[in-house]
Specification:
Blueprint lengths: L1 E9 L2 E7 L15 H11 L15 E10 L4 H8 L14 E10 L6 E4 L2 E3 L1 H11 L14 H11 L2 H51 L5 H13 L1 H16 L4 H16 L6 H24 L5 H21 L4
Antiparallel strand pairs: 1-2, 1-3, 3-4, 4-5, 5-6
Helix pairs in contact: 2-3, 6-10, 7-9, 8-9
Amino acid sequence: MLNELVVEGLGVIERAELNLECGCSALTGETGAGKTLVVAALGLLAGGRSVRALVREGAAEARVEGRFVVPGGHRSVDVLRRHGIVEDDPVEPGPEVEIIMTRTVTADGKGGRARINGRLTTIAALAEVGELLVEIAGQHEAQGIGAPARQRALLDSFAGPGCVERAGELARAVRASGRARRELDERLSSEREREREADLLRYESAEIESADLHVGEAEVLTAEAERLEYAESIALALERAGEALRSEGGAAEILAAAHADVAGAARRDATLADLAERLETMSLEAADVAGDLGLRMVAPDPDALETTRARLDVISRLARKYGDRR
């Protein structure tokens, strides 16, 4: 039943609050006192069409709020459960349920809102609940009997309380079945998703394994690619250095001559012996380096360079694809 009705900013009503009790309540008053507006307020709660002309002059919006208390097995509670506004209880209906419906209509006709138990909802949902809580007997209200939901409700009510109770039990059983089906679908979907992920991981693992990667391989190959890319210029530099050491009048020959002169002087001045030894070492080292330079020269090898770059591309692609995985 409707226990409380609050109307604000609707027509001539600035604010009105009605507290109703069981039984019949009658609103009386002279013409223009706002009786029709109370009925209009109930119509708004029931999901009726909003008319911005009803908003009180100077007010930003009109607001209607109604508090209903119904048994736990009432059909309106089933509708609220279906919309997720109240918890979906087990098969047995609970105690009385309080339903607070709120409707606002703005003066510009753009910002109207509907709420049930503090939750924003659609006008359609408000109307679906409202038609089970509010019945307005007017000139054209009988047209509502053409709605299939209204016809089912009338048929159930004529069949007696037992039928209504069984219909509620059936509705709750259907909801429970729906929940079970959704849970099953979610679990099956999760299982399929895990299998797809496992397949992907197996493919990725096989791809990485087939690449036969080694720690530090990229650094080694990068250095090798650079060496092969500049092999010709490196060979020319080594050849010039070798000529500077080996040629007539080159560094090796000059060092050998210097050693011979200092060694001869050291035979007469023992303090020069250490210098003679150092020059001898430098002369021998220059000869060894000249030989090594010849061994280190490598001819350009385009095929080896291409192979090295291809391997680096494989490593780089895998690093981009999997490198940021944790």
